Amino acid sequence: MISQTPTSSASLPATPHESDRAARILVVDDEIINRMVLGQMLTQRGFEVFEAENGQAALQMLLSEPFDLVLMDLSMPGLNGIQISRLLRQAHTQMELPIIIVTSSDDRQQLLDAFRNGANDYITKPVDPDVVIARIRSQLRLKKAQDDLRESEERYALAAQGSNDGLWDWNIYLGTVFFSSRWKCMLGLNEAHAIDTVSDWFTLIHPEDQVRVQKDLTCHLRGESQHFETELRMAHQTNGYRWMLCRGLAVRDEKGKAVRIAGSLTDITEGKVADALTSLPNRLLFVDRVQRCIDQAQRNGDLKFAILYMDVDGFKLINDTYGHTAGDEFLIEMAKRLETAVRNCDSVVARLGGDEFAVLVENLTTEEDAVRVAQRIIDSMSAPFQVAERELFSRASIGISVNTPECESAEQLIREADVAMYFAKAHVHLTYKMFEREMIEATTVRMEMSNALRKAVTDGEMSVCYQPIVDICTGTTAGFEALCRWTSPRFGAVSPVEFIPLAEGNGQIIEIGRHVIDTACETIAALNTDRRQPLAMSVNISTRQIISPEFISTVKDCIEQRQLPPSCLKLEVTETTVMQDPETAVELLKALQDTGVAIGLDDFGTGYSSLACLHRLPLNVLKIDRSFVRDMFLSRENKAIIETIMKLAESLRLDVVAEGVENIEQLKHLESLGCRYVQGFYFSAPAAREELEELADREWQLF
Ligand code: C2E
Ligand code: MG
Ligand code: MG
Description:
Number of domains: 4
CATH topology of the largest domain: TIM Barrel
Helix content: 40-55%
Strand content: 15-25%
CATH architecture of the largest domain: Alpha-Beta Barrel
Distance between the termini: 135 Å
CATH superfamily of the largest domain: EAL domain
Radius of gyration: 43 Å
Bound molecules: ligand C2E, magnesium ion
Structural class: alpha/beta
Number of helices: 27
CATH class of the largest domain: Alpha Beta
């Protein structure tokens, strides 16, 4: 008989337990009252209950519908509980369909028979509802865990198949590891290859990665990490080392001790060594290649190879002005050009990150071979880049390092090329530079200087001096060029040739530039007070300043504050600035010119400006670079260049200022070519503010 104690029933929660929800239970009993009592008890707790009055009916139902658990009377007419269990077990395992026997008999033998025939558990009549529910729940939990595990195993196997991963499964007690055939195949091993222990596996791991992998693995086995996940290099039978991602999860016993760990192996070589944007090898692969060369050179002392480290001028400007998509387009094009430029030599081109590329050139006969490659790369940059529907110009600064017998690590050699690159970049006229040992110290100094520069304006270390620009026709001063000076308490007087590139690099140029414009405007406004013929003031401007959105208003503010006629201010931009992106330059310079200031093109002739471009630029002045003036008697070409510039300026109706005039011969020749304005030590070096009144009024003895 089934007894039901109302008190215990009332004490049970009426809401179904999480794992009870919708569980389908078949109650098999020949006595209707038993079925009803059990049925009611279970329904109350949210189970879905079905009834069968004998073994035959139960089998019928179990064949046609799915159930989660069977609650079965042991002694029934016809098929009894033991017989039904035996039949059911032919179709379902204990985990798939738990059977709980309900028995009033305390016949031990019968119970043992029931278990032998596949029963999972039993309860005795009279039934205690708490016990029934507890046992049912316990069986359902086990079943659910098993179902989940099976499902996740199936899912995992499917995922592994789909992703081409290899699988491994280590039975820690037995000390054996199962490696799937895919796992073996990924390492070039065939199916029959005998590999079934952890030490077999570890012999395939790169020596440098073994300790780390061991550590990660131990950490997870001890329960200190949630998953085992590590990147490692594994030896491929025929293909060197491959980068792999190895993941795993431990199965633990009730004490938490790991008894088994299984996981996957994914080949990540591609992602590890190729740059996703350009598909060029990345830093990792590049370092690896260079290291191989170093190792070879240690065996064969004659082997020579070089690293070309390259930085693309103006990339950051492209990114900032046109956005990252444009920046990406540019880098992809850059990568193509590099590959084309080095096509005919033993080389590896890599993208090391950002706008930094590197080339490894192998099998050099002399260092000159490396220089030739650098030159080819530089030449390949001369054509404009089609980016963001515009033509942009760029150029590369390249540092070169060649291996020496002392050279031990790839990183060192790459660093040397990098250092040399900074020297190339700092000197505008140099596009490549060979590494020299002295550069290392100089690099440290430069970094410290760059830092010191951040406080230079606020600490009053920046000053401005002025060089007169002389009008040859009248023999009077036409104006001045403002030139910035930095006197650092630590580094002394630093040349603008040195600190302006640093300030451009760290952004300080904006603040320094504003200080120079402001000071220069104040100076010229004061000098022009009561002057019949107002003098002009030229101020040098960097690219970073020109493209900064607040630049025009800075210029306007400075002019208005000093009540200066805008035409008294001449802004000098360099040819390099303009030529990087002529279209934008035209727009920016036009906007500046609209404020009434004049625009001068500085250092003309040193850049690579296409003369065709020149007529589109809104210019007022051309400044002939002092290198042409200096060398004008050295060669026929130099003379011819100055003559050409003069003719060009005339046709474009531009004033010409010749810089760096140091002697009378130069002056005479410039005059004979029709150059009206000159500037140089022949007249005066840049002078302090106090000297300007006198210089402004001076009548120059020209010849
Ligand atoms: P720059 O604008 O071409 O200035 C002319 C440079 O030539 C000045 O060098 C000047 O001192 C020098 N110089 C003048 N006459 C002679 C001569 O007869 N012989 C020789 N050998 N040199 C002469 P400085 O002052 O060292 O300036 C160098 C460069 O630094 C400038 O070239 C300009 O590009 C840059 N710079 C100077 N001040 C500023 C500034 O405030 N802002 C920016 N962005 N650049 C500046
Ligand atoms: Mg200048
Ligand atoms: Mg100049």
